[in-house]
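Supplementary Methods. Inverse-folding protocol.

Structures were first reduced to a discrete structure-token string of length 387. This string, shown here, constituted the complete conditioning input.
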């Protein structure tokens, strides 16, 4: 068989870095600060709500295609409560298998082969895959250390007659950059001037420290061209449940629903009931989540800096991007491949999130959504790297 089995659009994608590094952590017994998942589950009463839904036969059979009404209503209420955005639960909300499916369904629905999609790199790994699946072309605009602010002139220059949409992630994985209101407005103005759609990946919306999260859809003129994506994984510390959602106009939601139907059709029936409950948790829940993570951020950032990493303090997400050059390292991929044996810790080389590999060659990402004692243990292991 001469032809490669994997179609040529996806050639070179391989196994995700997260799967690879988590498998290494298990095989070597290393502390896993690689893949972003909390080591403590979310609220017990929300877990109990999922168990009760299973026991009482809620969602054990196919839930409705767009998601159960209780969850669509809870998503709409959440958008109203936190952002003052009104969405009709029946026509403007779609439940998906995590944000991952929402983004994939949006790309497959909204792109034609040959279209261009602009995204800030480093970008979350599924973006490149989804854009490729749609036969479209990704056009990266690089966020540069040390502050990873978006370069709006470069963004403007990247727009061509083929540009269909901007795929935007704020708070941003892996850099922790959070768009300011002025930056969000400037991006919105470009989208409006060039009649572009914007897909916003807001999965870290509640993981912001001393900053506000500004959904693009809240800006004048943007609601009708923005497909807003989020999910329960990070906000409620249940990353394995894979419950996500889309909010947008009826026409855009309907387009995304059309592709979503043929990806999973539906998923996570009982978990949808539990997430509906979770979204209604009081403000204190959301505040405590951010307060707790900020303490962990400061613990890990301080410790890494003391060891000799260059640390880029994140304003959001539960990731810290570092540079390992001050430790005498030249290549983050090599550094991360050796780290489990050398120090008993797993981290993610940010180079895999860049098209411009040089821009991220010595950047390494650490997750801090772990118990304080686990972060301490990782730091004491990493101390062997101090020069
Ligand atoms: N977008 C970003 C930026 C992410 O970091 C993640 C992952 N964890 C996702 C999307 C996927 O979210 P989900 O687990 O809800 O599919
Ligand atoms: N979003 C998580 C991270 O960036 C990983 C999710 C996944 O493994 N696909 O670490």
């Amino acid at each position: 068989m001469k032809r490669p089995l994997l179609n040529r659009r996806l050639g070179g994608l391989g196994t995700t870095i997260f799967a690879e590094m988590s498998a290494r952590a298990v095989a070597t017994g290393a502390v896993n600060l690689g893949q972003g998942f909390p080591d403590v589950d979310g609220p017990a009463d929300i877990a109990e709500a999922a168990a009760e839904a299973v026991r009482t036969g809620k969602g054990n059979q196919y839930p409705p295609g767009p998601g159960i009404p209780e969850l669509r209503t809870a998503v709409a209420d959440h958008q109203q409560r936190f952002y003052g955005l009104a969405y009709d639960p029946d026509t403007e909300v779609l439940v998906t298998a995590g944000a991952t499916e929402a983004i994939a369904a949006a790309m497959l629905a909204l792109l034609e082969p040959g279209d261009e999609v602009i995204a800030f790199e480093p970008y979350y790994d599924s973006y490149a895959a989804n854009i490729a699946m749609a036969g479209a072309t990704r056009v990266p605009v690089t966020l540069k250390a040390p502050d990873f602010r978006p370069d709006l002139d470069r963004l403007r220059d990247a727009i061509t007659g083929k540009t269909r949409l901007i795929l935007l992630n704020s708070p941003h994985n892996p850099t922790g950059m959070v768009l300011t209101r002025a930056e969000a407005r400037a991006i919105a103005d470009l989208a409006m001037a060039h009649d572009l759609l914007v897909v916003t990946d807001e999965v870290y919306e509640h993981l912001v420290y001393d900053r506000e999260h500004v959904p693009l859809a809240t800006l004048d003129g943007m609601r009708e061209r923005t497909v807003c994506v989020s999910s329960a994984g990070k906000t409620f510390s249940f990353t394995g449940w894979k419950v996500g959602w889309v909010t947008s106009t009826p026409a855009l939601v309907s387009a995304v629903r059309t592709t979503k139907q043929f990806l999973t059709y539906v998923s996570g029936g009982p978990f949808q009931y539990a997430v509906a409950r979770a979204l209604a948790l009081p403000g204190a829940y959301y505040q405590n989540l951010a307060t707790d993570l900020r303490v962990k951020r400061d613990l890990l950032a301080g410790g890494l800096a003391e060891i000799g990493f260059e640390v880029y303090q994140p304003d959001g997400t539960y990731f810290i991007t570092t540079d390992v050059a001050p430790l005498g390292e030249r290549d983050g991929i090599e550094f991360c491949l050796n780290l489990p044996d050398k120090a008993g810790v797993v981290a993610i080389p940010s180079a895999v999130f860049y098209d411009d590999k040089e821009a991220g060659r010595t950047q390494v990402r650490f997750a801090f959504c772990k118990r304080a004692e686990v972060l301490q243990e990782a730091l004491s292991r990493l101390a062997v790297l101090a020069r």
